[in-house]
User: Which sequence fits this backbone?
């Protein structure tokens, strides 16, 4: 099975900071990597699909990059409403969908 | 507006059974694959099971294979998850999540999620 490892597990940053979250796959997954945002008590919400495609309506301060085994989610200027837990999810090994363990983002 | 509304969660004893439902609206239900994704308290997301739009193809995580059964009634726009032989480790919020189109194809992602229903397995 493909394992997804996110780092860091938690992160504290200030408003306006540039924030980077990484996701590493245990084997190559091409660009079959999605990112979700989950706010406390809410369902996850898709941010980016296929590694770098921003979902319509998601603020452009969010971006994704990477391929094969190493991927990055970047928030260019952190806003208070970005407080959430972020998950990567691979779908190379269909129909097995594997999520990373999550990165909890807090405001400093 | 796409809506997914889960129901059927609750407290059940180990070894017991429960059936979850997910009522869908706002899209042509039979045209889209749907999955169940769960989240144990304070933990991350785990894909549980998925079903094609027609219902002809079903998929399961190893952790639930042989105990859970996914099905759908396209005439009622409703998805189900029959959960048998429940264990403490099945305790979680269960979400239904709509696929962008089909399951086991590319691209693939979950574009809409329900609000979740809590299943607690405890004596």
Assistant:
């Amino acid at each position: 099975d493909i394992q997804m490892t996110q780092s860091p597990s938690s992160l504290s940053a200030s408003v306006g900071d540039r924030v980077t979250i990484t996701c590493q796959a245990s084997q190559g997954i091409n660009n079959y990597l999605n990112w979700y945002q989950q706010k406390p008590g809410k369902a996850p919400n898709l941010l980016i699909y296929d590694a770098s495609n921003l979902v319509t309506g998601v603020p452009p301060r969010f971006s994704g990059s990477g391929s094969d085994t190493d991927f990055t989610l970047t928030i260019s200027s952190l806003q208070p409403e970005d407080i959430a837990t972020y998950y990567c999810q691979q779908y190379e090994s269909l129909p097995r969908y594997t999520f990373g363990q999550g990165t909890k983002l807090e405001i400093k | 507006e796409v809506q997914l509304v889960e129901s059927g969660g609750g407290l059940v004893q180990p070894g017991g059974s429960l059936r979850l439902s997910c009522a869908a609206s706002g899209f042509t239900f039979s045209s889209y694959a749907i999955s169940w994704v769960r989240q144990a308290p304070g933990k991350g997301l785990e894909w549980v099971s998925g079903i094609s739009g027609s219902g002809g193809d079903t998929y399961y995580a190893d952790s639930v294979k042989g105990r859970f059964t996914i099905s759908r009634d396209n005439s009622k726009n409703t998805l189900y998850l029959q959960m048998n032989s429940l264990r403490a480790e099945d305790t979680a919020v269960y979400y239904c999540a709509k696929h962008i189109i089909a399951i086991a194809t590319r691209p693939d992602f979950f574009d809409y999620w329900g609000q979740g229903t809590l299943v607690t397995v405890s004596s």
Observations:
- The radius of gyration of chain B is 14 Å.
